[in-house]
Amino acid sequence: MKFNRMVKSKSFTSPDFGCKPEEREISEYISKGVINLDKPSGPTSHEIDSWVKRILSLEKSGHGGTLDPKVTGILPVGLNDATRAIQLLLTAPKEYVCLLTLHQDVPEERIREVFAEFTGKIYQLPPVKSAVKRELRTRNIYYATIYEIDGRDVLFRIGCEAGTYVRTYCHNIGEALGVGAHMAELRRTQVGSFNEKNNLVTLQDVTDAYHFYIEDGDESFLRQAIMPMEMAADYLPKVIVKDSAVDAICHGADLACGGIAELTDNIQKNDIVAILTLKGELVGAGSSLLTSGEILESDSGFAVNVSKVLMKPGTYPRFWK
Predict the structure, then answer these.
(1) 220-237 pLDDT, tens per residue?
(2) Is domain 93-191 given the CATH code 3.30.70.3190 in the classification?
(3) Which of 70, 228, 239, 298 could form a disulfide with 257 if both were Cys (CB 3.0 to 4.6 A apart)?
(4) Which fold has domain 32-90+194-230?
């Protein structure tokens, strides 16, 4: 989803500090990169991390949103410095294509009625084997579109809030229909701004790209397989800061209204927002204290309570005392 950017203060960025994410030197590009990986069925998400780390000779890697071993699809993987940035995806909306199997025959019209009831806010109890506390909670189902009903098999696409259990969703659909149901197959098709049309690669693609780089010095394939870590924050509302504000944030300061050059028009109070430089580099993230309109009108006070710093201090000069 794209939002309009509003100019708060006309500002210019010095070419002497930082650089556009896509123009980073290759070693830094890899270290601040994310991979939109197409996870195969079989391995765990942690095994995928380990293989990526070994393929690219990295110190560390991490994924944004665990997939069960049998589930396929979008698994964003952060490399080295980008492992902290990839954590921004843990709260990102998700999309899946799922095959649900009913345990008895049900009229098609009734199936569609129940699916319509299971959109908007729903209640879920996490499964027994889960990483979270097992207590009833609400989750938003943005849409559940049925593609095909073939006997007891229902193929559908679901867009949902982070933390939604599709397996539980299928079980609850079966209970509502009074016949029981289970999730037969699942593929994740989107995480935040990562989707199947956006540089989706396999482990073999990554291996080949790294081989071309090491053996032939051709980094073009690696730059296609890896995206800048800023992609992990692409789905978030944004504030773009002046060069003079960057280093203070890197040292742990909250973002003052006077340090903002531009912002998107979709910021609400308490939203998690991404903080970027004028060159598009990800500085950090935090919770907005004001709406877009209030930030635009304010010349004093703080706009963002910074909770995550992702840029190293000293990248931009120190203007603060």
Answers:
(1) 999 999 999 999 999 999
(2) yes
(3) 298
(4) Pseudouridine synthase (3.30.2350)
Q: Provide the strand spans (E) within 48-105.
A: 61-63, 72-79, 94-102
Q: Looking at 16, 49, 68, 208, which residue is catalytic?
A: 68
Tokens of 85: 């940035």
Report the run of H or E that residue 217 belongs to, with start and end. Answer: none
CATH of domain 5-19+236-309: 2.30.130.10
Name the residue with tokens 């933390």: 163
Number of neighbouring beta carbons within 10 Å of residue 63: 26
Active site residue 299: no
Residue 4 backbone dihedrals phi, psi, to 5 degrees:
-75, 145
pLDDT tens readout for residues 39-68: 999 999 999 999 999 999 999 999 998 999
Q: Which letter does DSSP use for residue 280 in this model?
A: -
CA 213 to chain CA centroid, Å, is 27
Nearest to 97 by CA among 185, 18, 14, 26: 185
